[in-house]
Amino acid sequence: MKAWFNIALRADVVGRSLKVAAIVGTILALINYWDRLVPYSLDFNAWVKIAMTYCVPYCVSSYASVSAIVAQAEK
User: Could you list the residue range(s) of the whole structural domain that residue 54 is in?
Assistant: First the structure.
């Protein structure tokens, strides 16, 4: 498990995951909150949900990257 987290914290994995989270998170936030973003009517709960919208693609991308690196190393 420690090795998995060491790979997940590598600069290349973190950088790739941040890029994916920025793109996918923004698209999802716009899809889900566009009607509330324009009139600026977001409350604290909405901002928390938007932040979580960015966390999900980050985690998915990190998991996929680590899984691919581990699978490549096992060959």
Answer: 2-74
CA dihedral (21, 24, 28, 33) in degrees, to 10, reads 60
pTM: 0.86
What pLDDT score was predicted for residue 69? 96
Number of domains in the chain: 1
Burial of 21 (0-12, 13-18, 19+ CB in 10 A): buried
Q: Which of 24, 22, 15, 10 is nearest to 66 (CA)?
A: 10
CA distance 27 to 75: 36
